[in-house]
Amino acid sequence: MLGLYKPIILIGFMASGKTTIGRKLAEILNRKFIDTDELIEKREGMSISEIFERYGESYFRDVEEKAILEAVNENNTVIATGGGCVIRESTRRLLKEKGIVFWLKVDAETVLSRTNNDNTRPLLKEDKERKINTLLLQREPLYIETAHYTIDALESPEEIVSKILDIVSASSY
After folding, report:
1. Strands (E), the chain
2. Which residues of the chain have pLDDT under 70?
3. Whole-angstrom Cα distance, residue 37 to residue 41?
4. What pLDDT shows up at residue 112?
5. 2 within some domain
6. 3-state secondary structure of 45
7. Which end of the chain has less neighbouring CB within 10 Å, N or C?
8. DSSP-based three-state secondary structure for 32
9. What per-residue string of b and e applies to 57-78 under the rule 16 or more CB within 10 Å gives b?
10. Is the distance from CB of 73 to CB of 98 less than 8 angstroms?
11. Residue 41: which CATH number?
């Protein structure tokens, strides 16, 4: 169908800029923006931190996978995912098959500085630096496996958006 495009999906570690970049892309491309974490919080009636505390990570990943399944089945969207959405193989496959996936790559130092005063991240409650390094090490191969394209997220949001737009306009998805 003419005019219906696969979702542009942003994956990456927490604080990599997925929501900021996603909103800008959606505005420029005149697409609907979906932040899966926001969708989950709205549906569950509580924050991601509260979901983790009350029900645990496994429950959260179940809810997250359902939200992603719904989001990727819409056309003309830009989707920002949660940082850990790549943990499950079924979710990785779903993302890669249904959209054009961009990994916004950041390093541990950048994540640490961007989350320094942020106490809302459930996986960073204690020993933030060690936890960031551990999670990045675990997730990097999963981001690589899932992404069609890798974008250095250390650049300005405008530069990142420009790079993604160049790739999207040159691709025939």
Report:
1. 8-11, 32-35, 77-80, 100-105, 149-152
2. 1-4, 117-126, 172-173
3. 6
4. 83
5. no
6. coil
7. N
8. strand
9. eeebbebbbebbeebbeeeebb
10. yes
11. 3.40.50.300
φ, ψ for residue 75 (rounded to 5)? -95, 165
Domain that holds residue 61: 8-167
pLDDT (tens digit, 9 = 90+) per residue, 63-90?
A: 999 999 999 999 899 999 999 999 999 9
CB neighbour list of residue 165: distance below 8 Å, 6 or more residues apart: 25, 28, 29
Distance between CA 82 and CA 104 in Å, rounded?
12
In a domain, residue 157? The reply is yes
Which pTM does this prediction carry?
Answer: 0.91
Query: Any residues with CB less than 8 A from the CB of 91 and at least 6 apart, and which?
Result: 61, 64, 65, 68, 85
Give the helix/strand (H/E) hosting 159.
Answer: helix 157-170
In-domain check, residue 155: yes
Residue 1 lies in a domain: no
**Number of structural domains the chain divides into:** 1
Widest CA span in the chain? 50
d(CA 135, CA 116): 16
Residue with tokens 């054009």: 100
Query: Any bridge partners for residue 101, and if so which?
Result: 9
